[in-house]
Each structure stands twice: as C-alpha cells, then as structure tokens.
Design goal:
1 helix; 157 residues; 53% strand; mainly beta
Length: 157
C-alpha cells in the first residue's frame, strides 16, 4: 500500500509540474555559443524564431560570460526582421552593465555568469519567422570571456 501512495504522490507532483510549465508563455528560447577566446565583431549570431502568430511578444537577451571578460559593460546591436519579406521591424543598441562601480560581476552563477536584459515588446503584424541578428558593438575587435548569447520570446499578456 505504501508503494502505491508514493507512486500516486509522484504522479500528482509530475502533473502539477507539467501544468505549471504549460502556464509559461515562453514561445522561443535559444542560446548560441561564442568562441570563449574571443567573439569577433564580424561574427554575427543568428536566431530564427519560427511559427510565430500575429501578436505582441516580450523579448529578452541573455548572456553568459566567464571571469575573463575585461570590461565593465558590453554594447550589443540587435536587428530584427521578418524572414518572409526581410523587412526590418526593430533595431536596438543594448548597453549591459557587467560589473558594478567596484568592479564586481553582477551576473548570477558560478563558473558562467548569467545576465538577462529586456528588449521590450515587439508586435508582429503577420504569422512569420522572426530573424534576429546580434553583434557586439565594442571598440575592441575581439571580445574574450563571452560564452553564449541568447534570445527568449514570451507571448505578451
């Protein structure tokens, strides 16, 4: 009898976790790796979020770095376009604070530090694939210490 109760409890927990994950509005989340020895300015990172329906989406850029990143901040250019028409619908320059004024890293994590920043909301006029291109916009040609860069889209309420 005890085995059945534990199985039933495990089943209930699994269903609860599955249902709670369904409530998340994340439509797309993907990270691209970057050469840890140096992300070259000419090395564009491409993301393709397909199957998006017409509507509004909250966007977020994620970044994972290690302790070898040499600067206090990072500037990124993020260009977004509809794949079917190649129409640019949004272009942003993001400035991320990597360390505080005392030089301490602000990200969360141990060996890789995670940073996330909002890109705001984007409105898609039609069902399409969103193509996102990200490059770094720093004076230095090669940026060491960046491991991954990612994009997350969530259906706006």
């Amino acid at each position: 009898m005890k085995l059945k109760r534990n199985s039933l409890l495990g089943f209930i927990i699994a269903v609860a976790l599955a249902l709670s994950s369904c409530n998340r509005q994340t439509i797309y989340s993907h990270y691209e790796p970057v050469d840890i020895d140096g992300w070259e300015r000419s090395d564009t990172l491409w993301f393709y979020a397909g199957g998006l329906t017409e509507g509004c989406y909250n966007e977020q850029v994620g970044l994972r770095i290690n302790g070898n990143y040499p600067f206090k901040d990072l500037s990124l250019v993020v260009e977004q376009r509809l794949l079917s028409t190649q129409t640019i619908i949004k272009c942003d320059t993001l400035n991320l604070a990597i360390t505080d004024d005392d030089g301490f890293f602000q990200g969360e994590g141990l060996s890789l530090l995670q940073y996330e920043t909002s890109l705001g909301t984007i409105s898609l006029p039609t069902s399409d694939t969103l193509q996102v291109a990200i490059i770094h916009n720093m004076k230095r040609e090669v940026m060491p210490g960046i491991a991954d860069v990612g994009i997350t889209l969530q259906k706006a309420p």
